[in-house]
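Input structure tokens:
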């Protein structure tokens, strides 16, 4: 089949950023159905040029000399606010031409800034850049500008920041917003400063500066508190709350939105009350979702109860917006129809996601209580614009999801869904909104795909791609869809690979663009991106349909590409976990990829186990293993199906992985106080046979194995795999390390001159769930005996503040933390335990209003990131997390360990996968450091020797196996 010329042309165009960033689209929190396509929610950069009442007053003054210009400006604003961007652009272009003829510079600059935003929404990026650059040029030099001119200049800078951020240029966006803040200060315009501070907080967060980001939001909040009570204050407080939600600060978000709602009610602003209550419902939904995720891992009744309370609060917030029934306690809201529909659909979406089937039934009954024709009439009553089109499309997707998943008798026919999407497409065409039309066409394609009408699906999807204006958030979805359809239609493999490669490259851009979005608001990584990566790997590593044995050699180019995709998937998982980009080192050290470092190390091999769905065997997995040997091209040495009977009560149609089930069984055996050879060794041997035995001869000359582990393989220590023939654990044959994707390591050999900063907590931290660690002092004494160059802070002296000071003021290259910790339940719940600060320190922080007061002694991942980034000295050679509680049973725990390693800038990190008796830990650490100072022994070999020492001296497997070296193994 001939590939579309448009697709080839697209290769020559630069990747472009996301366009759907208006506040009105924040209601689309996350479509939990109709996978893999989702509504993506970019973070909201606050747009000053079209949203502020005070800006409108300013423009009225500036434009008073031209009634026609004023009329056109106001008309364009109405179109923009309604989501009718093409009409807004046309109207503002007329105004711009009028002002140009009149020589009205300030008016022309204002309308050009607005015009840039309209072009951006339409995906017309060259025009958007040209318009904002023209606006900027008109206002130079700034020294001669009046206060009104400065405010317009600040507006232009804000718009330039939006354009930079949407194209992934976060640093440039931040600089523009910093400049805008200064300009607004000079113009004595606090409302503008609030907007710029909120925007800066988003940029700072995406760069990993969590504390500075929080400080900017606090400053914005303080400025707002000083403003007079007005509709503008209501709107800005809502923007603040929405930004805090996007950044994962859900409690702060609720506080800000509560204040906005209270003020809106006090000022009797019914439309603002409705808009803020909708946003509050979205925050409560995100809180319920977050707590539900934690409850599913802890399985604590209290967590499930709290998640249920939050769900009920969110339901109430939504119901009050669409229920017309009177309530004695509260006046009935009469929100705009748009907000009413948004609340109804958000509630239905949430109910489906939480599997509240009775509630789903009631919501569908309310939506479909009349004939479908009546529902269509209600939809037609919505105001013209993009938000209304998105409501229609979200409704179709939710109804289709219910047809497939919900145990309800209330369904709407597929033909009706086709008609509704086709009608939506026509309305998008009438608005000349090709972005919305692209969504409608793509969703039509997806609907046809689910009904196996692949030819029709391909036709609509290809048309959607043409209308996508090269926006990666659209292109990746439609290219992926075309790849699946080409595969279903059994078209040539080159075409399938072409589409998957295009989808992969655009997904990379989308993933990076969305890093500034918080974990509960960003698109669900596992639902939206991970399946694409795995499907693409499956296409690059084809399964032979004729026989079980496959050609393991394959196309070398495609094997290298599979390696690239795997590496990027690992990095993507880390970035998703951290909710920010991986921090670039701020030093002059020369770095190289893991693969390049391994090539120089003639005794090290890299192993990539990959879990893929086996499309031919429901309930089975396809295990692929790639091997990178020194000075050899990457090779594929294992490809096999793994099929076991699912646990009782689990259907093969459920989200069940045979490989993950086997690995989970092994993990449970490993954690038992007394490892059972009868149950555990057969599992250890089976997994060894999966990964190691087929490459036995090639690995004979190797001394170190570096694993880039996938999914549930991260749950189990590779050291515990067992060679049944030689009766040896893997750690007895090889030193072992784990790393993540295409991370850069220093090219130089590790520094063997060690200087240690050790922090320990042997006393009871008085924190629920954690007790004293009596062997910590012995552990620290052992280390000092081996490495005399050591500074120590412990017990009451080990606080977050003291650790920060020690890191900032000393030149240690090893940091050893002997304390409790937990890694894996999420970024906010990954932490180590220190002594809580004194009451005097807490009061001092409160007085300075710098940050939230740490009252429990937990130092979470964000705070650790800030602690290590305050250090402007030599990079950390080794970070040791000698903690007693480092496990959660979640395969994200290694992400937590790796996250701390990367955010700290440490070359290597040593930690454990589960709770270990601190007596055996002190013994292992003694041997580890004794070995480490030997210049001929690598870190991985030092750990190997320490683990073998415990093994040979009769310690149980659960005591020596879980140690994990992450990063540089040398």
């Amino acid at each position: 089949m001939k590939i579309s010329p448009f697709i080839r042309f697209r290769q020559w165009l630069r990747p472009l950023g996301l366009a759907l960033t208006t506040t009105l689209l924040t209601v689309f929190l996350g479509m939990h159905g109709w996978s893999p396509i989702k509504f993506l929610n970019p973070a909201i950069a606050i747009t000053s040029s079209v949203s502020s009442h005070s800006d409108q007053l300013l423009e009225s003054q500036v434009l008073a000399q031209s009634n026609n210009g004023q009329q056109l400006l106001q008309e364009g604003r109405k179109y923009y606010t309604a989501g009718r961007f093409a009409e807004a652009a046309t109207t503002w272009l007329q105004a711009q031409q009028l002002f140009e003829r009149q020589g009205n510079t300030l008016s022309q600059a204002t309308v050009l800034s607005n015009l840039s935003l309209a072009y951006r929404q339409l995906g017309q990026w060259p025009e958007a850049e040209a318009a904002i650059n023209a606006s900027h040029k008109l206002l130079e030099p700034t020294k001669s500008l009046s206060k009104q001119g400065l405010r317009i200049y600040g507006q232009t800078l804000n718009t330039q920041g939006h354009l930079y951020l949407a194209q992934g240029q976060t640093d440039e966006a931040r600089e523009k917003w910093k400049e805008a803040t200064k300009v607004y200060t000079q113009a004595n315009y606090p409302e503008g400063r609030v907007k710029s501070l909120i925007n800066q907080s988003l940029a700072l967060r995406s760069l990993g500066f969590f504390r500075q980001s929080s400080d900017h939001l606090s400053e914005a909040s303080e400025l707002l508190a000083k403003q007079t009570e007005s509709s503008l204050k209501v709107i800005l407080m809502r923007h603040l709350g929405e930004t805090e939600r996007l950044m994962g600060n859900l409690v702060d978000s609720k506080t800000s939105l509560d204040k906005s709602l209270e003020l809106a009610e006090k000022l009797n602003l019914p439309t603002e009350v409705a808009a803020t209550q909708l946003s509050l419902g979205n925050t409560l939904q995100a809180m319920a979702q977050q707590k539900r995720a934690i409850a599913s891992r802890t399985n604590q009744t209290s967590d499930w109860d709290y998640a249920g309370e939050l769900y009920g609060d969110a339901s109430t917030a939504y119901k009050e917006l669409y229920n017309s029934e009177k309530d004695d306690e509260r006046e009935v809201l009469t929100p705009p129809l748009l907000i009413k529909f948004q609340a109804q659909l958000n509630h239905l979406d949430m109910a489906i996601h939480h599997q509240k089937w009775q509630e789903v039934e009631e919501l569908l009954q309310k939506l479909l209580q009349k004939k479908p024709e009546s529902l269509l009439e209600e939809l037609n009553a919505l105001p013209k614009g993009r938000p209304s089109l998105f409501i229609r499309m979200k409704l179709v997707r939710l109804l289709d999801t219910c047809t497939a998943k919900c145990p309800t008798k209330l369904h709407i026919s597929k033909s009706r869904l086709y008609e509704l999407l086709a009608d939506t497409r026509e309305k998008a065409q009438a608005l000349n909104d090709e972005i919305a039309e692209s969504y409608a066409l793509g969703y039509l394609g997806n609907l046809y795909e689910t009904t196996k009408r692949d030819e029709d699906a391909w036709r609509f999807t290809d048309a959607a791609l043409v209308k996508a204006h090269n926006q990666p958030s659209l292109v990746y979805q439609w290219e992926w869809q075309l790849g699946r359809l080409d595969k279903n239609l059994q078209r040539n493999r080159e075409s399938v690979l072409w589409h998957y490669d295009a989808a992969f490259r655009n997904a990379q851009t989308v993933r990076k663009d969305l890093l500034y979005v918080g974990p509960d608001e960003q698109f669900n990584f596992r639902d939206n991106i991970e399946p694409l990566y795995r499907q693409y790997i499956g296409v690059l590593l084809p399964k032979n349909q004729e026989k079980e044995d496959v050609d393991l050699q394959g196309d070398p180019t495609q094997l290298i590409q599979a390696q690239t995709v795997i590496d990027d998937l690992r990095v993507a998982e880390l970035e998703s976990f951290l909710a920010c980009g991986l921090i670039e080192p701020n030093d002059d050290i020369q770095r190289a990829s893991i693969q390049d470092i391994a090539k120089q190390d003639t005794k090290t091999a890299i192993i990539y186990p990959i879990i893929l769905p086996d499309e031919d065997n429901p309930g089975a997995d396809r295990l692929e293993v790639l091997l990178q040997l020194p000075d050899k091209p990457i090779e594929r040495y294992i490809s096999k199906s793994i099929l076991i009977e699912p646990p009782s009560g689990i259907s093969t149609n459920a989200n069940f992985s045979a490989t993950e089930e086997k690995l989970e069984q092994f993990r449970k055996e490993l954690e038992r106080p007394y490892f059972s050879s009868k149950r555990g060794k057969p599992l250890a041997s089976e997994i060894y046979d999966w990964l190691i035995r087929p490459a036995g001869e090639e690995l004979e000359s190797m001394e170190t194995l570096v694993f880039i582990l996938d999914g549930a393989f991260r749950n189990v220590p590779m050291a515990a795999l067992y060679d049944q023939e030689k009766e040896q654990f893997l750690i007895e044959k090889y030193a072992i390390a784990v790393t993540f994707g295409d991370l850069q390591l220093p090219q130089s050999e590790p520094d063997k001159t060690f200087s240690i900063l050790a922090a320990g907590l042997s006393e009871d931290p008085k924190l629920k769930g954690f007790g004293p660690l009596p062997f910590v002092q012995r552990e620290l004494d052992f280390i000092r005996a081996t490495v005399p160059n050591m500074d120590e802070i412990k017990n009451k002296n080990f606080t977050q503040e003291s650790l920060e000071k020690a890191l900032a003021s000393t030149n240690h290259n090893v940091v050893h933390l002997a304390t409790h910790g937990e890694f894996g339940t999420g970024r906010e719940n990954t932490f180590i335990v220190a002594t809580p600060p004194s009451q005097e320190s807490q009061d001092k922080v409160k007085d300075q209003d710098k940050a939230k007061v740490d009252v429990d002694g937990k130092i979470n991942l964000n705070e650790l990131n800030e602690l290590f980034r305050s250090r402007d000295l030599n990079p950390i050679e080794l970070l040791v997390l000698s903690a007693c509680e480092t496990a959660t049973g979640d395969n994200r725990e290694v992400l937590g360990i790796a996250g701390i390693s990367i955010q700290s800038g440490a070359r290597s990190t040593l930690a454990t996968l589960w709770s270990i008796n601190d007596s055996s830990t002190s013994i292992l650490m003694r041997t580890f450091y004794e070995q480490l100072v030997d210049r001929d022994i690598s870190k991985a070999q030092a750990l190997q020797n320490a683990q073998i020492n415990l093994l040979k001296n009769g310690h149980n497997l659960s005591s020596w196996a879980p140690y994990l070296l992450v990063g540089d193994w040398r």
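The chain has a mean pLDDT of 82. The chain has three domains: 23-387, 591-738, 749-967.
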